[in-house]
């Protein structure tokens, strides 16, 4: 268990630190970056938010709030609170045209910064729980590596970076975006900023 939560945070930190991120879109408060490596596509969405970093951290690390701003989350419940910093959630997503709705069992690990220059971290990855086997109604999907890094810019502002490493499984959600308009990603980011502020 300790290894899984450590590797969850380490994977996100490693992804964030990779060289070769390319910026694809810039709005006032949102920048979208991509990183390609083999059949893995990673996204980074950087948002400028007018609230203190510790507040953004407490709002983003509780995934039961996620439906309020992310339309890809239909439902989200805590299956297991492993400890103060680790929770396992069960998430369902709405169906795409012609597909079954998807579901996920995810571990969310949160970490406070050790030094002021370091970010708050909320790392996410799929885990397997014997008590939650795949059901025929849903297409069980996997999150390889996703999450947030939250950097403090001042007492009242912060930069929130959302990362997601995408496999071919999550592609139907993003295919429409990446073919020309990243509208839905930007809409979700704007909703996230609105929710936080």
UniProtKB/TrEMBL annotation:
GO terms for molecular function: lipid binding. One of its GO terms (cellular component) is cytoplasm. Residues 18-166 form the START domain. Signal peptide: none annotated. SUPFAM superfamilies: Bet v1-like (SSF55961). SMART domains: START (SM00234). Pfam families: START. InterPro entries: START-like_dom_sf, START_lipid-bd_dom, START_lipid_transfer. This is ACO12 thioesterase. It comes from Lophotis ruficrista. The lineage of its organism: Eukaryota, Metazoa, Chordata, Craniata, Vertebrata. The gene is Acot12_1.
């Amino acid at each position: 268990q300790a290894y899984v939560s450590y590797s969850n945070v380490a994977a996100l930190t490693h992804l964030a630190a990779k060289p070769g991120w390319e910026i694809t879109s810039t709005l006032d408060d949102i920048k979208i970056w991509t990183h390609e490596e083999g059949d893995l596509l990673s996204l980074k969405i950087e948002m400028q938010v007018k609230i203190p970093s510790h507040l953004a951290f407490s709002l983003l690390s509780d995934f039961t709030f996620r439906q309020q701003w992310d339309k890809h989350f239909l439902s989200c419940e805590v299956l297991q609170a492993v400890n103060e910093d680790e929770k396992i959630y069960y998430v369902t997503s709405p169906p795409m045209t012609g597909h079954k709705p998807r579901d996920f069992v995810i571990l969310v690990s949160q970490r406070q910064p050790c030094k002021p220059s370091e970010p708050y971290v909320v790392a996410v990855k799929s885990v397997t729980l014997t008590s939650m086997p795949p059901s025929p109604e849903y297409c069980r999907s996997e999150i390889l590596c996703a999450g947030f890094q939250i950097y403090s810019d001042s007492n009242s502002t912060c930069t929130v970076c959302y990362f997601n490493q995408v496999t071919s499984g999550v592609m139907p959600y993003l295919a429409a975006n990446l073919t020309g308009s990243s509208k839905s990603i930007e809409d979700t980011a704007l909703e996230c900023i609105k929710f936080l502020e």
